[in-house]
Amino acid sequence: MKFGGTSVADEAAIGRVTAIVRRQLERQPASDSPPLIVVSALSKVTDGLLQVARFTAEGDRDQALTRLGELADRHVAIAATVTSGARLAAVTRDLHAEFTATSDIVRALSSLHDVSPRLLDAIASTGELASSRLLAAALSESGVPAAWVDAREVLQTDAEFTCAAPDMDGTHARARLKLAPVAARGDVAVLGGFIGTTGDGVTTTLGRGGSDYSAAIFGACLDVSEIQIWTDVDGMLTADPRVVPQPRLVPQLSFAEASELAYFGAKVLHPSTILPAVSKNIPVRILNSRQPNLPGTLITADARSSQGTLTALACKRDVTVIDITSTRMFMAHGFLSRLFDVFERFKTAVDVVTTSEVSVSVTVDDARRVEPIVENLRAFAEVSQEREMAIICAVGEDIHDDPTAFGRAVSALGSIPLRMVSQAASRRNITFVLRDADVQQAMVQLHDAFFGTTN
Ligand code: ADP
Ligand code: ASP
Ligand code: MG
What we know:
By secondary structure, the chain is of the alpha/beta class.
C-alpha cells in the first residue's frame, strides 16, 4: 500500500491512512501477511528540500537552515497531534535526528557553494525518512502493530544519483532479510518510498515521483497479491484533471496502456511503476485516500477498458523538438545510427521520432544536454531546435481495430497546428507534437470528441 504526499499532508490525512490500513487488516484473512506500507514525503516537502539544496549551493546558509527548520517544525507539530507520551517523545527525537543530520550537510556544503547530485539525494531523502517515521508512530498510536524500516537498507540501486535504477536481485535479498522478520511478527512494515542506497550504502533517489516505483519494486520482491497506489484522485482518469475539466474514471486498463500513459505524462503513476508489476504479473490498483470506498482503477495484463476506442489522453509539456536535415547523407546507411549515437553519448532519451526523405525530427523531454547534442549533430547535418513544444498521446488497446480513430483525432484538433504526428507499430497510441501554448485547447477538443463534452 503506497500513500502519496497529499495522502499524508496533515493530521486529518494521516488519520485517514491509519483507518485505511486498519480496515485492510480487519478484512484480510488472518493467515495473510500484513500489508507493507510505502509512503512519500509529506506534501510539498521534497520541493522544500530541493529549495534548501539550492540555497546551500548559492552559499546562502541562513536561508537554507531557516527553510530546513520550518520543514522540521512541520513534522514535529504533526507528530504532536498524532502521537502522545513516550511515543511522541521517541518520534520527536527521531525526527530531530533526521533533520540534524541534514543540517550538518547543509552547514558543510554552504561554504563550498556546491551541492553534488550525491549530496542532493542525501538532502532529498530527509522527506521520506521523516514521513515514514511519522506514519509508523501514528499507526502504532492508533493500535495498528507497525515497525519503521529504513528503506535505504532494503532498496538497492546503482549509483546514478537523482535517477537511480533498482538492483532487483540485491533488493530481493535485502527484502528477505529486513522485511520477512517484521511480517513474521505480524507487524506492518512502514518504509519511505523514493530512496535507496548503492551496494556501498550511499543514499540515492529514484527520481521525482519515485515512491510509486519503490512500492512496485518492493511488491515484486515480496511477490504480493496486489500493489495499491493511494492518491488524491479516484484513479486513472481519461485526462489530467488540471488540464481537462471533469475527466472520467477509467475503471480498468492494461499494463501496456498504463505504461504508455504514465510515460507520456499521467503523473498519477511514475513511468517505471508498471515494470516490476509486469515481471511478476501483479495487479496494480489506483485508489483515492479521501474516498476509500470507491473502486478505483485496476491495472492488469490484459484488461480492456470500456470507454470506447480510446482509454485516456496524456500530455507531456515543455519538450524540445530537434530537426536534423542532411540532403547528402540521409539515404546513406549508418546515418541514423550515427545520429542516435549522439543522443546515447549525452544520455538523453528521445520520445517521438518522425522522418521525411531528407530529415529526422525528434523530441526530447530532458533539455539539459540539448546544446552539446546539437553541436555534435552539426558535425554531419543541419540542425535546428524548437523549445516550448508539447506531446499529446492518445492511448487505447482498441485503436488498431478502429480505422477511423486517427482521422477523428486529427479532425477533432481542427485548425490547431501539428508539428509531428506518429502512430507506432503497436498501434496502441496516436501521438501529436504541437506548441505548448496550444496543448490545453487541443486536450479539451480531443477529450470532447472521444469522451463526450466536458464542462
Ligand atoms: P501522489 O502524491 O499521491 O503521488 P501525484 O501528484 O504524484 O500524487 O499524482 C496524482 C496527480 O496526478 C493527480 O492529482 C492529477 O493531477 C495528476 N494526473 C495527471 N494525469 C492524470 C490522469 N490521467 N489520471 C489521474 N490523475 C492524473
Ligand atoms: N517525494 C518524492 C517527490 O516529491 C517522491 C514521490 O512523491 O513519489 O518527488
Ligand atoms: Mg506521485
